[in-house]
Specification:
The protein is an alpha/beta fold. The protein has two domains: about 5-10 and about 35-105 and about 145-210, Beta-carbonic Anhydrase, Chain A (3-Layer(aba) Sandwich); about 105-140, no CATH class. It is built from six helices and five strands; from the N terminus they run αβαβαβαααββ. Strand 4 (about 195-200) and strand 5 form a beta hairpin. Helix 4 crosses helix 5 (about 120-130). The longest helix has 19 residues, at about 160-180. Bound molecules: zinc ion (ZN). Zinc ion (ZN) binds near residues 44 and 100.
């Protein structure tokens, strides 16, 4: 059996982490609209992730969908439905990463800070090393920030077992959201596959997240 594109990306990543350039940044000339590798990547917006480089993807080969956390939210589902049904992608790669900012706050804390809670303002200032300036008003949007569940760690704290667990839970949540969506088929002739990874910003390596797997306990 030939290797999946996801497996090829895993191989490319090993080369990237070893210092090899696996993405060619030169303008390749005209390309078709459909991603040549039939793959869509959902990744965090973190400044330390060069998604095409770390997976060895070339211009024209993949859809790259990014947001804070690489969270599979309503808008990512929207993009994936378009990517699959109209533009012929059939593999999805989710990429979360170590030291993610989404480990360092909660939705309630950020909302309280934005609305004007002085204690929240102070905590967010301490956590980010930036003077947090409240907007002193409330808003219904966004409905959620999707900060990762679990006990908070400091911003950019070194990777540890607990934050690894929290990242894994969110990767699994994203995989579940894709696999259970009625318009993203995971069976049948038009099926899509989904695999999830955690990228280590210190080593450049990706590690696969098992699915299904533990989703944690509040205890
Ligand atoms: Zn991140």
């Amino acid at each position: 059996m030939s290797k999946s594109v996801t497996d090829q990306c895993v191989d490319n990543n090993a080369k990237y982490a070893g210092g090899e350039a696996v993405h060619d940044p030169k303008y390749p000339g005209g390309q078709p609209i459909r991603p040549a590798k039939h793959v869509a990547v959902v990744a965090c917006m973190d400044a330390r992730l060069d998604v095409e480089d770390l997976l060895g993807l070339q211009t024209g080969e993949a859809h790259i969908i990014r947001n804070a956390g690489g969270v599979v939210n309503e808008d990512v589902i929207r993009s994936l439905i378009i990517s699959h049904h109209l533009l012929d992608t059939n593999e999805v790669i989710l990429v979360h990463h170590t030291r993610c900012g989404m480990l360092a706050f909660t939705d309630d804390l950020l909302k309280a800070g934005l609305e004007g809670d002085p204690a929240a303002e102070k905590l967010l200032g301490q956590a980010t090393g930036r003077a947090f300036t409240s907007c002193k008003t409330s808003s219904t949007e966004p409905a959620a920030f999707h900060a990762f569940r679990g006990p908070l760690s400091a911003l950019d704290a070194p990777h540890d077992e607990k934050s690894n667990e929290r990242l894994e839970w969110d990767v699994r949540r994203g995989m579940a959201a894709i696999l259970s969506h009625p318009w993203l088929p995971s069976e049948g002739p038009d099926k899509m596959t989904v695999r999830g990874f955690i990228y280590d910003v210190d080593t450049g390596k990706i590690g696969e997240v098992s699915y299904p797997g533990p989703m944690g306990s509040i205890g």
